[in-house]
Amino acid sequence: MSDYLLEMRAIVKQFDGVRALNGIDIKVKAGECVGLCGENGAGKSTLMKVLSGVYPHGTYDGEIYWNGAPLKATSIRETEAAGIVIIHQELMLVPELSVSENIFLGNEITLPGGRLDYDTMNRRANELLAELNIRDVNVVLPVKQYGGGHQQLIEIAKALNKNARLLILDEPSSSLTTSEIRILLDIIHQLKSKGVTCIYISHKLDEIAAICDTIVTIRDGQHIATTPMREMSVEKIIAQMVGREMNQLYPEKRHTPGDVVFEAKHVTCWDPDNPQRKRVDDVSFTLRRGEILGIAGLVGAGRTELVSAIFGSYEGSYEAEVYYEGRRWHTTSPLQSIRTGLAMVPEDRKHHGIVPDLSVGQNMTMAVLQQFSHGSRIDQDEELKVIRGEIGRLKLKTASPFLPITGLSGGNQQKAVLSKMLLTKPKILILDEPTRGVDVGAKFEIYQLMLNLASEGISIIMVSSELQEVLGVSDRVLVIGEGQLRGDFVNDNLTQETLLAAALAQPLH
């Protein structure tokens, strides 16, 4: 009998002749939590898709052993039957179905005659959630009634219902609040105590350090090291990931903001589902030339709604006056905003940033196609030259600009969306959670790009849930709380405590 529940030996996976995985070995013991670390594009998600049957046996080289026996799964259903369940970064829930229906999706309990046994499913769903210490969820309500934190836990309940022996969590906390992350980590501790084995993928290395027993690092599709967490630190994990010591997480600032060039006045947004409620309540602020303005606040404070209204993409009713160099800008739609010189990289790249059916290059140039058009014809050589230039400038990892954008890692998709907006040559650039799901090395590159743009005179508004990030790159910080402006701070010896106190305090008067 093997000492290991899972062994992956010499795994090789190629796409169009390019090796995404190049002979990776992994061993996982039963009841262990393994942190899988690597930069964007290192091969983490590809490796887990091989393991979970998304890429079936025969489409890769190498061997997988499960509980000592060869595993040659040709589908996800086969790996789930064996007890291997993956929870993807993008949750696989059907919003309109109930919590119970989502937990049993594909594994429904039926009565004689084929009707669904809702009583049994609802009872079992409640039992599963109780095991996870979740008691404030009504399992008969649509899952869309619950926020990201609850939905993530519902996905875990769904996995436990499939009798998961190995649970793969891919960026499970990317859209969770601090308190929700604490609950998630507590639940993983509970699962470990019950003998459930976990593979945890996250760019939040403090979580990895808190929850994992062993760290497996991969870089450029190759296995770098397997190390007990007790011998590691966050700094050592970073060094293994990027192949060098990172002495600083944020680049040194070398730009000085100029005069005020941009003003947003009386921005007010009403809740689309409850028009009596204001999500943003009469917020006004200014922005200097070449300034990086951070917007901080708790989840639900109204930060995304604020910048969406300024850009003209807020889904509900809103009011916003936008001025550039004293002239009123009409930004009632994203297209109008882009044409005036205002661009935005949205928070949800999957739904609002990329077009999944198009290639990497097509996604990058779709907002500026008129630059390459001559009559009714697109100059494809000129377009490709610009695309290759952008891929080099942003250090975007792709085997080819013609590959589907969905084949890229999340961080590289983010760079493509950023490139799309930069090609519009904006005067003002809004970045909503620009480094969500992005690794440490790529984060540094994005911060460096932001500082370079600021030194060229482009003004940047950055929304971020990470206070450390806001303080690391911003010249000035606005704090939003319950839709109101609660603080406007110059970032000079500013602390996370000051920002958090402002977010929780009364509005400024």
Give a structural overview:
- One of its GO terms (cellular component) is plasma membrane.
- Pfam families: ABC_tran (PF00005).
- Residues 6-245, 262-507 form the ABC transporter domain.
- With 509 residues, the protein is an alpha/beta fold.
- It folds into 2 domains: 6-242, Rossmann fold (3-Layer(aba) Sandwich); 260-504, P-loop containing nucleotide triphosphate hydrolases (Rossmann fold), CATH 3.40.50.300.
- The chain contains 17 helices and 22 strands.
- It has helices at 44-52, 76-82, 99-103, 118-131, 148-161, 178-193, 205-211, 234-242, 303-311, 334-340, 349-353, 360-365, 380-393, 410-422, 440-455, 467-473, 496-504; strands spanning 6-15, 18-28, 33-37, 61-66, 69-70, 84-87, 166-170, 197-201, 214-219, 222-228, 260-270, 278-288, 292-296, 318-324, 327-329, 342-345, 373-374, 377-378, 428-432, 459-463, 476-481, 484-490.
- The strands form 5 sheets. It has a 6-stranded mixed beta sheet, with helices on both faces.
- It is globular and about 70 Å long.
- The model has no long low-confidence stretch (mean pLDDT 87).
